[in-house]
């Protein structure tokens, strides 16, 4: 341990974790050292069949769909909202005109080649489709087409609210109307339940006017982020057929986009003409991979949370008497917590990924927090801010096992009250050790993907409670001689989720909306819209579409390399990369964060003038090198060819190969012919 604040990764058996990067120390232990009013959208009438224009959702339908009866009621926009409604997002040059060039790459496989056969079997109609790029046509471009037939598209908010979602709809609408004024865009009212029950609203300029660049999903509302039971899929298909839709756009995160892939496959199988497209919209920032750099809403949520955390830091240092335990939303992955930590620099940060990696028990976590509190007390500091991710609770090995047992009992339809008596003996012991409020929260009914409701489990309160008990114990035993430990707890989730979107999220969502329309106009099915080069200004973004199946994998029950993948292929949330630059930066600053109170004040989101460009994008996105682009890959491959010449030394070959390893991964997914060349260089 380095000055008591850093330590080597140790497994629960007390051994140094095999394969772990030796230098990886626990970061958390630093601890870290219009103006038009909304009346417009209430026009229309309820309908199930043609004429397919506007529809009004009756009170009864709203009740049946468990929808809020206030959805769609006129509301007054504040001055700031009115100004935001006038903001015009920028488009990259390829999306500016009426014509576009669609370029097809080679066929794709999947992000994890060991699962390719399983994905291919499960998705015979939609697996292996090519990556697609949208480019600005040349003057002489024969492929570029100015004439476009009208199309009919439906759009649904499937995933949880995320700032910027409304702009996806606006982007689809503008792109459709630019190509053909006769095209029709229908929004499903009440999210997926509106899709199943065929409740639509025709999107018009008027209806959109109060929702451009606004937060929330209240234009159409949302219900459950789930389209996967047979009844749900059939209901969705019957609605799309009834409405004679050419396309269906599904807005959401990993679960919604996995469902989109399933819908696309089923529709193709049943010769349903509707093509399905997914858009990565989620505050969690966990739908990221070789193709997708970030999700819509992540930027805003990180900015709002960072402001709140930094306010708490300043309050803490001013009074000098409380430890603040802050949990931020972000579901299973800790991208939001990592970004907010870099932006606001609290004293301690605990990411779920680092706990899972080192298999730290709850007791060990508490003991390390207490060590941090004691180290600060030695400097006469009796305040501090601890940041944790929402998914931390599931990352603690014994808590994970307990949650799994509860999940299985839930899936077997055991009533909530009977679950405790059916737990295994060791799980019962752990369950009984936990404070009553956590026990209650762990038993809550499951989330739509059959996992625990992470937002409802007050992990920050659990930690505060256990840390206080341990500090009191240390005091009694004479091991701690400072002031009495005192804590305040916060959960920052919904506060940020409903925020006005940042300029970045407004632009990103609007651009993705345009790309969705181009995917559908090209007749593609089972794709996700994505844009790359996001750290550059919008005019340098590249626009593309990736088959949803290319991002799928199948979970292995064991982590050993030979373990066979089991279960259904889905798009999994990507965890924080513990080898990545952003995490390395956090680790590097850990000890000074813990002891030196290097609080940072990023302030609120700036929309206008110079402030708007001070921090245009999150650090975690800025720090990544993305390769989801065929031109870039060609460029890399060219470099490999230049370095690796016949007869060159083994060292040169090895160096070239290691620097190209991530390229190899991308090539495997994107371009079989390119990849075929690489084994020539394989020295392993
Ligand atoms: O609105 P709900 O059901 O509380 O959803 C909470 C969940 O949704 C998210 O905000 C987005 O996926 C998660 O971070 C969180 O666990």
Task: Give your account of this protein's structure.
The chain has 684 residues and is an alpha/beta fold. It folds into three domains: 80-297 and 501-553, 3-Layer(aba) Sandwich (Rossmann fold); 298-498 and 575-621, Rossmann fold (3-Layer(aba) Sandwich), CATH 3.40.50.460; 626-661. The protein has 26 helices and 13 strands. The strands form two sheets. It has a nine-stranded mixed β-sheet with strand order 1-2-13-12-7-6-3-4-5, sandwiched between helices. Strands 9-10-8-11 form a four-stranded parallel β-sheet, with helices on both faces. β3 (152-157), α4 (165-179) and β4 form a beta-alpha-beta unit. Residues 1-64, 625-631 and 661-684 have low confidence and may be disordered. Bound molecules: 6-O-phosphono-beta-D-fructofuranose. 6-O-phosphono-beta-D-fructofuranose (F6P) is lined by residues 160, 253, 282-284, 329-331, 390, 454-455, 497.
């Amino acid at each position: 341990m380095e000055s008591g604040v850093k330590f080597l990764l140790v497994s629960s058996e007390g051994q140094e974790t095999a394969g772990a990067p030796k230098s990886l120390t626990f970061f958390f232990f630093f601890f870290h050292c219009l103006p038009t009013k909304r009346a417009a959208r209430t026009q229309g009438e309820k309908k199930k069949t043609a004429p397919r224009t506007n529809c009004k959702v009756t009170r009864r339908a709203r009740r049946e769909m468990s929808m809020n009866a206030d959805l769609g009621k006129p509301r007054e926009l504040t001055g700031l909202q009115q100004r935001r409604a006038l903001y015009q997002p920028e488009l990259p040059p390829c999306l500016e005109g009426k014509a576009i060039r669609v370029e097809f790459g080679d066929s794709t496989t999947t992000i994890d080649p060991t699962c390719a056969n399983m994905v291919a079997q499960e998705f015979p109609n939609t697996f292996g489709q090519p990556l697609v790029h949208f480019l600005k046509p040349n003057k002489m471009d024969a492929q570029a087409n100015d004439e476009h037939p009208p199309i009919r598209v439906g759009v649904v908010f499937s995933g949880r609210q995320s700032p910027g979602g409304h702009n996806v709809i606006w982007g689809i609408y503008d792109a459709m109307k630019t190509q053909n004024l006769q095209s029709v865009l229908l929004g499903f009212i009440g999210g997926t339940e509106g899709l199943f029950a065929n409740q639509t609203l025709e999107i018009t300029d008027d209806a959109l006017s109060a929702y451009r660049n606004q937060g929330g999903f209240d234009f159409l509302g949302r219900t459950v982020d789930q389209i996967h039971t047979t009844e749900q899929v059939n209901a969705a298909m019957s609605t799309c057929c009834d409405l004679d839709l050419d396309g269906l756009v599904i807005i959401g995160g990993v679960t919604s986009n996995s469902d989109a892939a399933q819908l696309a496959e089923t529709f193709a199988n049943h010769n349903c003409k509707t093509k399905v497209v997914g858009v990565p919209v989620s505050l969690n920032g966990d739908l990221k991979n070789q193709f997708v750099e970030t999700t819509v809403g992540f930027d805003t949520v990180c900015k709002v949370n960072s402001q709140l955390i930094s306010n708490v830091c300043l309050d803490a240092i001013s009074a000098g008497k409380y430890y603040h335990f802050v949990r931020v939303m972000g579901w299973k992955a800790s991208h939001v917590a990592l970004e907010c930590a870099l932006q606001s620099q609290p004293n301690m940060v605990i990411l779920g990924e680092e706990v899972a990696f080192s298999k730290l028990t709850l007791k060990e976590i508490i003991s390390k927090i207490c060590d941090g509190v004691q180290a600060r007390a030695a400097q006469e500091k009796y305040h501090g801010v601890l940041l944790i991710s929402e998914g931390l609770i599931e990352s603690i090995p014994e808590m994970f096992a307990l949650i799994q047992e509860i999940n299985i009992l839930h899936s077997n339809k055991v009533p909530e009250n009977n679950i405790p008596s059916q737990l295994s003996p060791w799980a019962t012991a752990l369950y009984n050790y936990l404070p009553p409020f956590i026990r209650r929260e762990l038993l809550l009914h499951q989330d739509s993907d059959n996992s625990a409701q992470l937002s409802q489990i007050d992990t920050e309160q659990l930690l505060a409670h256990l840390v206080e008990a341990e500090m009191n114990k240390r005091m009694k035993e004479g091991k701690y001689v400072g002031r009495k430990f005192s804590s305040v707890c916060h959960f920052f989730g919904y506060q940020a989720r409903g925020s006005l979107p940042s300029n970045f999220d407004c632009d990103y969502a609007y651009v993705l909306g345009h790309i969705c329309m181009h995917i559908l106009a090209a007749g593609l099915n089972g794709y996700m819209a994505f844009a790359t080069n996001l750290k550059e200004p919008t005019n340098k973004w590249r626009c593309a579409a990736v088959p949803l199946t290319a991002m799928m994998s199948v979970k292995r029950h064991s982590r050993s390399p030979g373990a066979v993948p089991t279960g259904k292929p889905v798009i999994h949330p990507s965890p924080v990369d513990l080898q990545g630059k952003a995490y390395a930066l956090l680790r590097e600053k850990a000890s000074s964060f813990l002891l030196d109170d290097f609080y940072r004040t990023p302030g609120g989101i700036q929309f206008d003038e110079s402030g708007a460009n001070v921090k245009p994008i999150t650090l975690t996105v800025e720090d990544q090198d993305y390769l989801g682009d065929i031109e870039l890959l060609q460029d890399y491959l060219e470099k490999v060819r230049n370095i690796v010449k016949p007869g060159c030394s083994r060292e040169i070959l090895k160096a070239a190969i290691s620097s190209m390893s991530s390229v190899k991964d991308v090539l495997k997914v994107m371009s079989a012919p390119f990849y075929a060349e690489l084994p020539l260089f394989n020295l392993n």
